[in-house]
Amino acid sequence: MRQIISLNQDWLFVKDTTDVTVRDGEKVNVPHCWNATDGQDGGNDYFRGTCLYYKSIKKADLPVADCYYLEICGANSSADVFVGGEKVAHHDGGYSTWRVDLTEKLTDETDVAILVDNSPNETVYPQMADFTFYGGLYRNVNLIAVNKTHFDLDYYGGTGLKITPTVNDKSASVEVEVYLTNFKDGQKLVYTIYDKDEKEIQKIESTESKVVFEIENAHLWHGRRDPYLYCCEVEIVDGDAVIDNVCSSFGCRSFKIDPNNGFILNGEEYPLRGVSRHQDRLGLGNALLPEHHEEDIDLIMELGATTIRLAHYQHDQYFYDLCDQKGLVIWAEIPYISRHMPTGRENTISQMKELITQNYNHPSIVVWGLSNEISIAGSDNDLLENHRILNDLAHDMDKTRLTTIAAVSMCKMDDPYLLIPDVVSYNHYFGWYGGETSMNGPWFDKFHAMHPNIPIGCSEYGCEALNWHTSNPKQGDYTEEYQAYYHEELIKQLFSRKYLWATHVWNMFDFGADARAEGGENGQNHKGLMTMDRKYKKDAFYAYKAWLSDEPFVHLCGKRYVDRVEEVTKVTVYSNLPEVELFVNGESIGKKTAPDHFFYFEVKNQGESTIVAKAGEYTDQGVIRKVEEMNMDYVLKEVGAVLNWFDVVQVEGRYSLNDTLGDIMKSTRGKLWFVKLGLKLKKKMNANKKAKASGEKKAGGFEVDLKADGGLMQMMGSFTVLRLTSMMGMMDISFTKEELLKLNKKLNRIKKPKNVK
Known about the structure:
By secondary structure, the chain is α+β, with helices and mostly antiparallel strands. The protein has 5 domains: 3-146, Galactose-binding domain-like (Jelly Rolls, Sandwich); 161-250, Sandwich (Immunoglobulin-like), CATH 2.60.40; 260-544, Glycosidases (TIM Barrel), CATH 3.20.20; 564-633, Immunoglobulin-like, CATH 2.60.40; 651-748, no CATH class.
């Protein structure tokens, strides 16, 4: 009978070495991540290299068995396994499970060394993306002891058990297929299906590796409404002895994605409205424990989401299990992201095989993601061929699910790669990375009209917010108030379009992106509805809860925004209840109803006031205080910035770095200034390319269309020049204080047209 022994404890960790004989290091337990600090503090200087994990295994401590497999559930990004100093295995891809047969290598005491490497590698994805590529042996490590006859452990990290339910009206046919190693004459297989209460409902004894169960009046897995799971166990029996067994939960469900009516589950419209999730945590990197996954799923459930996009790689098996159990519909994908590498094709294929093989039985998963923003620099024949190969592979391995991609705004609606997958989604940030919030809905309407037979969704949308505050929120200010406004607008636009097959907020949680230097806290992407430590729910979290959750509540926005200068201030309340009453210092100032769940009140700001929002039996409260001058603790200060916006010299009626590109382009002289800026940026980019070619400096890799009429620049019209120059830091394009002051001085000489404030 198989036994699984945890090897998580007592590893020797040696940083920055390829020498498997080194024994001078620190003791660690896995999961372990060596970038838990430097991968989240900014500067894009986190350690990327090779580290050693070593431990000695005594055979006397192991159960007696014929075969022993080392199981590694996550080593980022590549790894080599050495036994007794001899290299026995190599693996590329940092997010999947893989195994090594140690049977012939184990002695009475065996040295096992794993070299894990997250350094740049043009053959392994990801290599360019807006998140930290944390290094480490960051998921469980096990030893699996099995009989010589066992369920297959060698094929792409799978369990050897494949379950395919097919729903027919009220019944379900459940095909169960197993993959075996050294199965012998005289041995048999016992297949058993159990209900949710672990009660046996059917059993089949056979020597065949594939059987079919018929379940009458099958209890369907129906998302959050009823996430019913069966369990299938298969045993290998030799005589009277069970010599190996595997089991897996599964769900009986049918679904389709309709270009006009969106996602349909078991014949019923079931809108997919939810979030994306990165797996990392503050101070932990990717080295998560079960309780961290459980907290994440509970928070997403509280929000009321019906779907999660698990970006941008394979997540922990335990998290997929939780999604099955909670009824969340999942988009699962490989990290084929941002930059197509002709040298990386084989790695996309192997990662897709691992993703599907290891996750086939999860009823929560409905689409396999082929790529994310891969056409940011356009499509070429090699990229298109890579996608066709992946699309065909996914359909060959799994006849029951669909394929999808996440395209980026700059991808034209007639790009040929949009025709490859079954369904399409787009990542749009109109209202944050240029454009206006009002552009989102009409863009999707245009796509839907152009491609009426292609289901379209929104795979990313969002904006960043930290603990900055204002009563006049504007795009790019990183305030909690602008983020709340942005999501109010996007909720109304996206949720009202039933043809959108799924919408996924980017992101549920702030996450590590060490190259980022914006918003006043470097090293993170702050688009989360919650902070990276999971301690604070931003106001926008409750905007979604008001729309998606059935749990009654009321939330008073702006509780971190106490000091306010205006005589009358706006107070926003979110609730999923029909009516909200607001009290100021114990006195009601009125009741309001709001079909969109967003309640707005005007409150006189005098002295210090206690504000209480009441909806039914639920209340929430905060404090506001009248001040004469803006509290500068609420004003964005970029960490390490050469200039902050309040340091910029502004001249009445003239332009400055604090003006948007769109406004500057309304002036003829402004257009000429912009052309010169474009030439300067191009010069800096070329210098970076030369430096990269000579190995002097790592360039960001993004290609930017700097033409004044280019699509990207049209999107960026709402960026201030200062914000644009600060964001260029993510592409290794930097400006000195002197350069910025010189740019500002030239702008100060240009008069604004009368129609520009």
